[in-house]
Each structure stands twice: as structure tokens, then as C-alpha cells.
Amino acid sequence: MPINKVGVMGSGTMGSGIVQLILQNGFPAIMYDINEDILEKGKNSIVKRLNRLHEKGRLTLKELNSAKSNLTLSTEMKDLNVCDLIIEAVPEKLELKKNVLEEASTICKDHAILATNTSSLSVTQISTSVEKTEHFIGMHFFNPAPLMPLVEVVKGVKTTSSTIELVMEFAKQLHKTPVLCEDTPGFIVNRIARPFYNEAIRIMKDQIAAPEQIDRIMKEAGNFKMGPFELQDLIGIDVNFSSTKTVHEGFFGESRFRPHPYQERMVQAGLLGRKTKKGFYDYE
Ligand SMILES: NC(=O)c1ccc[n+]([C@@H]2O[C@H](COP(=O)([O-])OP(=O)(O)OC[C@H]3O[C@@H](n4cnc5c(N)ncnc54)[C@H](O)[C@@H]3O)[C@@H](O)[C@H]2O)c1
């Protein structure tokens, strides 16, 4: 059965971005979170961004109004029982994800697909909490979800081909480029990104070059949009360190994914990047 109505659990950075994407492509969405204030905040950011798209001429007034009226907010999980697809975008904590998905799997339609937006946890491990593991999949959107074209569609060990086909097709209807991945640590992008960040820190600590130099070389000579230090400051040193640890553990401690101890020191010192105004760079 094709996907029409979508539920999104979590209305933070990713949840609200994914909901916006669904709405602006003409599908109805139910956004679920733990309380109304949080949901209202998520809704306001969505409406603001949709209005901006209309001002820029990228959504007609009719499309704008229809997108707004297609949004339903809920703090009751049972309201997601009308959805064909439920995407989980709660914080990156295994037990939390398993708990919300376990509950969702008890209320959802028989044919419903459950998806996780996890960045680095095992899709197969998360899926053990749901009743129908064959209908479970990873849909890894990138931030900001409405703008970034890539979606990694992650096949758990028991995910069926019909589930994969439906999700790949739906991602295309959202005008994304879905890429099918095996359920390996970091999938594709986050795995490639580990040595990008790790080696940059090692080069800095080996006193070969300073962050400013490395970022400049990668941008000017390598044509990267941002250098590894600017990017880590943007992502958050703590968030990036946690992803590195998860990928390193996922590969049973393979040394090529080992974090640098300095990352941990930065976290301990509260040097978390842009959000604390200090990371590899200072921000005012
Ligand atoms: N932020 C990114 O750049 C990014 C990119 C790709 C994937 N991800 C992944 O997306 C997921 C969400 O990340 P985020 O950055 O949007 O987090 P966030 O902290 O911005 O949002 C999480 C939301 O989940 C809600 N929540 C917490 N417990 C809940 C529960 N029991 N039921 C329902 N909602 C609950 C919170 O209230 C919050 O609104 C994580 O798994 C993260 O790894 C994040």
C-alpha cells in the first residue's frame, strides 16, 4: 500500500524539518512530541519556513494553505494509528528510541512502516523493540532535512524488499535522493566523515597545521564547503564525539575509527563549538 499519511515522533531540529518536507510535498503529517509547548515551537518554525518559501515564490498560496492545514499536532501516541509511515526522530538514545517505537508498533496500522532517523545506532538493534521487524527501516535524513537532498535508507537485517521499495519510492516523492545502505556503523556518510574529523585533529595535534590552515586548505584546494574544524564546531563537539565513539564501538574498536583523546577533553571543558561560543574557534 503506498505511503500517504505520515507520523513523525519528535518535533526538534530533525522532526520539524522532516514534517516540513512532507507538508511542502503535499502529504498530510502528524507531529508527535511529549508536550504542547514543544510541539507549538516546532510548528512555529515550520510555519515560518513555509511562509518564507511562499514569499520566495517556491510555494503557491494554495500550496502554502494546504501544507498548513495538512499539519496535525499530537501528544497522544494513539493518534498515529492512521499513519502508513511513522518516522522516529527523538534524541539519539537507544533505550528511548526502542521505547517510543515499541509503543508505536502496538498502536499502528497492520501495514504501517516504522522508521528511525538515527545517525549512528544500529537499525537492527532498534528494530528488536517492534512487533514487525520486517516493516522496520532506517530513514536517515540530513540537517536541514528540507534542503539536504540525500536520504540514507538503511536496511535492517530483517527489513523486507517491499518495505525498502515503498520507502525508496516515498523518498523520491519528497524530491530526495534515497541511497540504500546496509546496516553498518555510521552507514555511508557518517562513516566517511569519521576519518575526515579524526585525521584533522591528529594533524593539528601532531603540529603539522593549525585548524585555520587545515580548514582553508580543504575549502580552497579541496573545494569543500566547510573545513573539518568549522564543521565540528557547527555540529557540536559533544555530538560529533558521541558519533565517533558509536562508530568506533560498532566496528569492535577498529583503530582507524578511534576518537582522539582531545575530543573528550574539549567535551569535559565545555568547549562544544558554536553552541557554547567556544570550540576550535571563538564565536561572539
Ligand atoms: N541534528 C542533526 O543534525 C541530525 C541529523 C541527522 C539525524 N539526526 C538524528 O535525529 C534524531 C533527532 O535529533 P534532533 O537533532 O532532531 O534532536 P532534538 O533534540 O532537536 O529533538 C528531539 C525531540 O524529541 C522529543 N522527544 C524526547 N523524548 C520524546 C518522547 N519520549 N516522545 C516523543 N518525543 C520525544 C524532544 O522533545 C525533542 O523535541 C537523533 O536520532 C539524531 O541522531 C540528527
Automatic annotation (TrEMBL):
<dbReference type="InterPro" id="IPR036291">
    <property type="entry name" value="NAD(P)-bd_dom_sf"/>
</dbReference>
<keyword id="KW-0560">Oxidoreductase</keyword>
<dbReference type="InterPro" id="IPR022694">
    <property type="entry name" value="3-OHacyl-CoA_DH"/>
</dbReference>
<dbReference type="Pfam" id="PF00725">
    <property type="entry name" value="3HCDH"/>
</dbReference>
<feature type="domain" description="3-hydroxyacyl-CoA dehydrogenase C-terminal">
    <location>
        <begin position="186"/>
        <end position="283"/>
    </location>
</feature>
<dbReference type="Pfam" id="PF02737">
    <property type="entry name" value="3HCDH_N"/>
</dbReference>
<dbReference type="InterPro" id="IPR008927">
    <property type="entry name" value="6-PGluconate_DH-like_C_sf"/>
</dbReference>
<comment type="similarity">
    <text>Belongs to the 3-hydroxyacyl-CoA dehydrogenase family.</text>
</comment>
<feature type="domain" description="3-hydroxyacyl-CoA dehydrogenase NAD binding">
    <location>
        <begin position="5"/>
        <end position="183"/>
    </location>
</feature>
<dbReference type="InterPro" id="IPR006108">
    <property type="entry name" value="3HC_DH_C"/>
</dbReference>
<dbReference type="InterPro" id="IPR006176">
    <property type="entry name" value="3-OHacyl-CoA_DH_NAD-bd"/>
</dbReference>
<dbReference type="GO" id="GO:0003857">
    <property type="term" value="F:(3S)-3-hydroxyacyl-CoA dehydrogenase (NAD+) activity"/>
</dbReference>
<protein>
    <submittedName>
        <fullName>3-hydroxyacyl-CoA dehydrogenase family protein</fullName>
        <ecNumber>1.1.1.35</ecNumber>
    </submittedName>
</protein>
